[in-house]
Design brief:
384 residues; Pseudouridine synthase; 10-stranded mixed β-sheet; RsuA_PseudoU_synthase; RNA binding
Length: 384
């Protein structure tokens, strides 16, 4: 026999029934419908304790409806009542804030033979006695250590903020591994090139800049590439904002100089798509040479690669890297370059498996072949 329900005589308070999870919940009131924020926890709606700020423990201002421990939103550039700023960290001077740059992914490696891996491991562990390293310029040694660019180091030296063996250094002086260097009163451990340098090839995408810092806050390749602990990446040449393809980076400044300097005439190969087509006579003239704003220029080689409609593809080879040189050579003949991809730089080719936005690091045996091709020693320095 079921029990009778208790009567409500005398204004007795009815027990609050619990809502079953399988019953539909009533929708929450949207924020701002009643002039206040929703509580983050149901119990917060019934609390009589004044919410306190999480850092100082002081009571929050009157009218605050946020639960204990929650931060109150403030306007951009404003400051909270307790003196703690609630706005995001301000960007660096001269560089506006932007979305976080996604790191480039590494191309999947294919394992070589055990013999090849053994050779790479031996080259990786090999070190050169620093006593055999010749003296180098002070600003170059500081830049290779990663303190700053060579120009920045020259400014510090000229300002008298660099000391060598307790004496103020002069611009252009050279140091050896036995010298002790201090920058702005702090001792600096010079990272001497005593091992095999590193080389990576990156498939640059359109819209990325080859620079370390852009005042407009645009994406740079150095923000996407992996960081180095004992040195810094040096880009071998540049690709403009709208050019994609092979970008070579290395930790050896000498190797980068060998590959970029006009006296070495290292070949650069590009795939070019144009709106329009060159005549056979124009192609011959492009290899003989034309006059541009900054002097004569020519293609070492040019050949047709087909196309559809108004678009035509060409393969071109140059032995210099002046600013927008490929585009300006085609513009000389009235054609606009709609796509420009670098596919080779010297002996390094853009792998077909390397997708845009990915990078591939050469193994030690491959690095050694590049150094031999450039006529450099094991550490990426000029042979004595």
């Amino acid at each position: 026999m079921s029990k009778a329900k208790p009567s409500n005589a005398g204004g007795a308070r009815q027990p609050v029934s619990r809502t079953r999870r399988d019953q539909p919940q009533a929708p929450r009131t949207p924020k701002g419908a009643q002039g206040r924020s929703l509580p983050r926890h149901p119990a917060d709606e019934f609390t009589t304790r004044k919410p306190r700020t999480p850092l100082t423990g002081k009571p929050a201002p009157q009218g605050a409806s946020a639960p204990p421990g929650a931060r109150r939103p403030v306007a951009d550039g404003a400051q909270a009542q307790d003196g703690v700023s609630q706005t995001p960290r301000p960007p660096r001077a001269g560089k506006p804030s932007g979305p976080k740059v996604q790191r480039a992914r590494k191309m999947a490696q294919r394992h070589g033979s055990q013999k090849a891996e053994k050779i790479s491991r031996e080259l990786r562990d090999k070190r050169v006695d620093v006593s055999h390293i010749t003296e180098i310029r002070l600003q170059k040694a500081l830049a290779q250590t990663g303190i700053g660019s060579r120009r920045d180091m020259e400014e510090l030296i000229a300002a008298g903020q660099v000391e060598v063996n307790g004496k103020v250094a002069e611009l252009g002086c050279k140091i050896t591994p036995d010298d002790k260097v201090r920058v702005q009163g702090k001792a600096v451990y010079i990272k001497w090139p005593d091992r095999l340098p590193r080389i990576i090839i990156y498939h640059k995408q359109e819209g990325e800049l080859v620079t370390r810092d852009d005042p407009e806050g645009r994406v740079t390749v150095f923000e996407r590439l992996p960081q180095t602990r004992s040195s810094k990446w040096v880009a071998v040449g540049r690709l403009d904002l709208n050019t994609s393809g092979l970008l070579v980076l290395t930790t050896s400044g000498e190797l980068a100089n060998r590959m970029m300097h006009p006296s070495f005439e290292v070949e650069r190969e590009y795939a070019v798509r144009t709106l329009g087509e060159l005549t056979p006579e124009q192609m011959q003239q492009a290899t003989r040479g034309v006059e541009l704003d900054d002097g004569p220029a020519h293609f070492q080689h040019i050949s047709e690669q087909g196309g559809e409609g108004a678009n035509h593809w060409y393969k071109v080879i140059l032995r210099e890297g002046r600013n927008r040189e490929v585009r300006r050579l085609f513009e000389h003949f009235g054609l606009t370059v709609s796509r420009l991809i670098r596919v080779r730089f010297g002996s390094l080719h853009l792998p077909t498996r390397l997708k845009r936005g990915q990078f591939h690091e050469l193994d030690e045996a491959e690095v050694l072949l590049v150094l031999k091709w450039a006529g450099l020693g094991l550490t990426g320095q000029q042979k004595p």
